[in-house]
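Colleagues,

For the teaching module next term, I've prepared a clean inverse folding example: a structure given as tokens, and then the sequence designed for it. I'd like students to try predicting residues themselves before seeing the answer, so please don't circulate the second half yet.
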């Protein structure tokens, strides 16, 4: 992926974790059992998954610990996905024995340590983990941290949806960096899309946290561009209320448009449709 502008998110983790802990402390026992858009997980399972992320990151990045059972590499993206799915399933099954009170205390404690860890990290150092959903084999630390921010943000947003609570996560200060990070991977989504050199494709997210993101075809690849010339060959417009739902669930263009009928698509339907198939999580 071409060199990208640095997205700063390390200063936001403490605030994000505070919102999570306050939300979880307000839930009833019934709320913890509510289903979520993650079909296999209820609210407690997602909270547990967030704790797993904190513990594994602290162990690996702060403590330089590697599990003796961890593989040393993967032959394919599918192998990596399979490994992560197994880890997630094992963890959520085991931690269903933990009470919500204990889970909240652990999230509060480890979340503060995660915030300290990321504030102290050198954003230009090599990342602990490459951002695979952006097609990177090596990443800078700032991108790895921003990816971690989007992971925590969207799972917290899923919890808020499941329990039908308003959430400060939709404020531009927290949501715009999520969208910026998600859309760094647009060139990777289009990597196999053939188009004439100079073809531009734009995605607009409407709302205070939104913006317009444009990519352009060169002789060998697609890349982000801040310069537009004329009318893009294709353009999609989505509301910020649904943007995160689109980018965190793999669906075809037809499925997205059926689920979210207010999506606007202009110009070349194939190119615009590819925008709606963009996914910025491991899926």
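(Answer key — instructors only)
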């Amino acid at each position: 992926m071409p060199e990208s502008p640095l997205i700063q998110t390390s200063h936001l983790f403490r605030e994000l974790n505070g919102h999570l802990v306050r939300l979880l402390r307000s839930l009833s026992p019934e709320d913890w059992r509510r289903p979520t858009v993650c079909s296999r997980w209820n609210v407690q399972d997602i909270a547990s998954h967030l704790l797993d992320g904190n513990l594994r990151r602290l162990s690996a990045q702060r403590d330089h610990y590697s599990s003796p059972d961890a593989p040393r590499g993967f032959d394919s993206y599918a192998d990596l996905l399979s490994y992560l799915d197994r880890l997630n399933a094992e963890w959520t099954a085991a931690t269903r024995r933990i009470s919500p009170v204990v889970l909240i205390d652990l999230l509060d404690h480890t979340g503060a340590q995660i915030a300290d860890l990321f504030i102290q990290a050198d954003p230009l150092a090599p990342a602990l983990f490459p951002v695979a959903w952006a097609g990177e084999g090596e990443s800078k630390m700032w991108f790895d941290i921003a990816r971690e921010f989007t992971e925590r943000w969207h799972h917290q947003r899923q919890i808020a949806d499941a329990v039908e609570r308003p959430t400060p996560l939709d404020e531009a200060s927290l949501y715009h960096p999520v969208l910026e990070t998600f859309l760094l991977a647009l060139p990777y989504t289009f990597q196999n899309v053939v188009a004439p050199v100079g073809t531009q494709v734009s995605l607009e997210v409407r709302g205070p946290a939104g913006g317009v993101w444009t990519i352009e075809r060169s002789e060998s690849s697609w890349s982000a561009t801040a310069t537009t010339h004329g009318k893009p060959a294709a353009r999609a417009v989505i509301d910020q209320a649904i943007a995160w739902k689109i980018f965190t669930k793999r669906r075809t263009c037809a499925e997205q448009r059926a689920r979210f009928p207010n999506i606007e698509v202009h110009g070349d339907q194939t190119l615009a449709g590819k925008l709606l198939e963009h996914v910025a999580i491991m899926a």
